[in-house]
Specification:
about 80 residues; alpha+beta; Glutaredoxin; 3 helices; 2 strands
């Protein structure tokens, strides 16, 4: 998934902020609880207010991410 996600990050630079969490880092425990982490990889799309819009588990095609990105990017 790294090539897909990093490609999307480059394509949507300045429109969507990408953050990566190390699930083995104890400092991310609050995020794991907040987003009900249950599977790796896990992706959470948040709106501009930090509200979860969509969660994906496992491998996701780039087009599926892009369809959801279009819903949260301001025209």
């Amino acid at each position: 998934m790294a090539p897909v996600v990093h490609g999307l990050e480059a394509e949507y630079f300045g429109q969507i902020e990408f953050s990566y969490l190390d699930i083995e880092d104890p400092l991310v425990e609050p995020f794991k609880q907040e987003f009900s982490f249950s599977y790796q990889p896990m992706f959470v799309l948040l709106d501009s207010n930090g509200t979860p819009v969509k969660t994906w588990l496992g491998a996701v095609p780039a087009a599926e991410f892009e369809a959801e990105f279009a819903k949260v990017i301001a025209p």
